[in-house]
Amino acid sequence: MKRLAVTALVALTLASCQETPKGYVINGEVAGMPEGKIYLKSFRNKMFFDVDTAEVKDGKFTFKGEVDQPLLFGLATENMDYPVQLFVENTTMDVKIGDDGETITVQNSPVNTVFQENADKVFEDGYDIDSLIAKYPDSPAAAFYLYRYFTYQLPLDDLKATRARISLALGDCPYVKDLDGIIKQLENVQIGKTAPEFSLPDTAGVSVSLSDFRGKYVLLDFWASWCPPCRRENPNVVKAFNEYKDKNFTIIGISLDKDKSKWLKAIADDNLTWTHLSDLKYWDSEIPALYGVRGIPANVLLDPDGVIIAKNITGEDLHQKLKEVIK
């Protein structure tokens, strides 16, 4: 009798273990799409990459797999311009994608609760990212938002202070590791520091170095043809260039483009008549990373000795700063 009881207990224990999912299961629905394909995409450095494909049947799909830790992914059909985003963790998640192709709800996933609750709020003026980190110090979603949207908004000291609130349990989180790398880069490009040297190909493929411009005031202008805010700012930059180009001032345009023809067309269309450089590696370009650039348009103003004297000055602020330093 005892043997039977022990055997039954062992069998029950094994059954319970087997019922616990080892990896993730995404059970999804796509409104307004009865058939087709949907793609699961991993996220890295502002870009998404296909990692799996599923068939949509009767508006439903399933993905299965395993992740080392909760990570940001995207889901996209062939008709979507941009993936809807969610965190994938090793649990069974119920996902619904709206017929607008932009809204997503995720159930049975604690990390997605934090992610979804703040998805729109992080874009509001005055959003308090420090409070989010303080409330959820061990949430990968909170750490992601700090890394993704606030490294180029917060002053360095504030960024460091908020970073310090993140739990040690997230030490292996890639967003925390990338955040630490960005902070290190930002420390090297603060006002008063000598700008890091670099070389990049120009529009003809000839390598050009920053040191080639030593002795002039130089505006490093980070932009891209695909960036609407950059294109809107370009007339202002053109105005500044035309006013000061004969007063020991020049501009080096550093593009985050990946399509050379579109890059060259934007240069011509916007009448950008200064030096232009790019390795056409999009967000994998090393030079924006070297300068801690996480959003564009961005710029860095150097004095004739190559020392950084201003950063991210646009609109009328750009003209005021140039008037102040160039006599």
The CATH architecture of the largest domain would be: 3-Layer(aba) Sandwich
Strand and helix order: HEEEEEEEEHHHHHEEEHEHEHEEH
What's the CATH topology label of the largest domain?
A: Glutaredoxin
DSSP summary, beta strand count: 15
Please compute the radius of gyration using only Cα atoms.
Answer: 25 Å
- The CATH superfamily of the largest domain is identified as Glutaredoxin
CATH top-level class of the largest domain: Alpha Beta
Total domains: 3
Shape: globular
The secondary-structure class comes to alpha+beta
Overall mean pLDDT stands at 93
Helix tally? Answer: 10
User: What is the distance, rounded to the nearest whole angstrom, between the alpha carbons of the first and last residues?
Assistant: 99 Å
Kindly describe this structure.
It is a single chain. With 327 residues, the protein is an alpha+beta fold. It has three domains: 87 residues, Immunoglobulin-like; 70 residues, no CATH class; 127 residues, Glutaredoxin (3-Layer(aba) Sandwich), CATH 3.40.30. It is built from ten helices and 15 strands. The strands form four sheets. A five-stranded mixed β-sheet has the order 13-12-11-14-15, with helices on one face. The protein has a four-stranded mixed β-sheet with strand order 4-1-7-8. A four-stranded antiparallel β-sheet has the order 3-2-5-6. Helix 7 packs parallel to helix 10. The longest helix has 18 residues. The N and C termini lie far apart (99 Å).
